[in-house]
Amino acid sequence: MGDVVALDDLLKEDPLVLWRVSLSSRAETPLHVASLAGHVDFVRKIMELVPSFAQEPNKDGFAPIHLATAAGHLQVVRELLNKGDSDLFLLKDKARRTPLHHAAMKGMIDIINELLSNCPHQKGMEQVTSNGETVLHLAVKNSQFEAFKVLFEISKKLEDHEERVNAKDKEGKTVFEIANANATNHVQDENLLPVIATMIAAATFQAGLNPPSSIWEKGVHLDNKCIIPTLNYRHAGDFFGLKSCPASRFYGFMLCNTFAFAASVVLIPFRRDPRMAPLLTMISLFFLLFTYLTSLGTTAPNVFFFALVCANEAEEPTYREMQVQKGGTMHFMVPVLTLDDMKCSIASLRDIVWV
Predict the structure, then answer these.
(1) How far is it, in rounded angstroms, from Cα 53 to Cα 292?
(2) How much is the pLDDT for 81?
(3) How many angstroms separate the CA atoms of 145 and 37, rounded?
(4) N or C, which end of the chain is more exposed by having fewer CB within 10 Å?
């Protein structure tokens, strides 16, 4: 947990402990772990003792500053920049991404400003990844539009702004081409959601007004007393009362159907909300599925519950004594399942398959 006191005690016992870690082949150094966890005091202590750790990549090719940037630990990034080498902001991972690239991908505006305040803007902005991506490409590809605005304003003040904006990645796309493609996909998704919501709302509305005959018939009395006794595994063969208890199947169907209808109706005004739209879509589809399963449970054969019912009706098994002689005699009581123990006769099997 970044215990500096414990580190001091460990160094008193073995002053070379940190250097031994540095000799291990491409392992995670304590600075990697502390940077990722955001332990500023621990990072400061290690940088005082072994500043070269800041340049060390881990097995995935990430230096501590890459991890701190991606995790959004501004104070750790600031400490690494202050105590590390002057070119720390240009360190590249296996994909040739600098800390500024990682900050652009994550939309870390504070870290973007911190990185650019410690390096020449021109040098930081002109770096490209192994896929030919600039920081502007990465911000747009990851939908970090606030970060893109900050980087774009900085780019406008620098030389070669037009070339940087019109630069193409390895796929031959400029920043604005990527932005237009993302906007088109976003609009298509927004246009599709109302269609899905309307279809679910129409289906559930119709089912609510006119339930299937297997769910509701005029003149059928709903006896609520049969609901609770059927809600256990002994009634699995009866789909937990959906067949034998009219109240169970009616209330189960109407409850799921109502939730699906309500979620689909609420989805329409929230279709542009990036958080609510996916959630409401999943809720409406989830309850629509259970509406279907409830209806299916009133008509489908109970083949799937055959094993459960047979196991439930089985009596206590017969036990037979077994002897094992190996350096002595040992006695075991072994359960033996016989035909007499099973009550799944042909007649009961017929009742289980179709009630």
Answers:
(1) 59
(2) 92
(3) 27
(4) N
What pLDDT is stored for residue 303 in this prediction? 42
Q: Which position has the token pair 């017969």?
A: 318
Hey, where are the domains in the chain?
4-178, 181-300, 311-353
C-beta of residue 126 within 8 angstroms of C-beta of residue 165: no
Across the chain, which has 355 residues, the per-10-residue mean pLDDT values are 71 76 71 92 90 89 94 94 84 93 94 88 86 91 88 87 85 82 55 80 86 71 60 50 66 88 89 82 90 74 46 48 50 47 42 41
Between CA 81 and CA 90, with CA 86 as vertex, the angle to 5 degrees is 85
> Over the stretch 102-133, which tens digit does the pLDDT of each residue have?
999 999 999 999 999 887 777 888 899 999 99
- The domain made up of 4-178 is a member of CATH 3.90.550.10: no
**Distance (Å, whole) CA 160 – CA 32:** 35
Q: Which tokens belong to 43?
A: 């990072």
314 CB neighbour count, 10 Å cutoff: 13
Burial profile 170-201: b = 16 or more Cβ within 10 angstroms, e = fewer: eeebbbeebbeeeeeeeeeeeeebeebbeebb
Q: Name the one residue in this structure whose structure tokens are 């237009």.
A: 180
- Prediction pTM value: 0.55
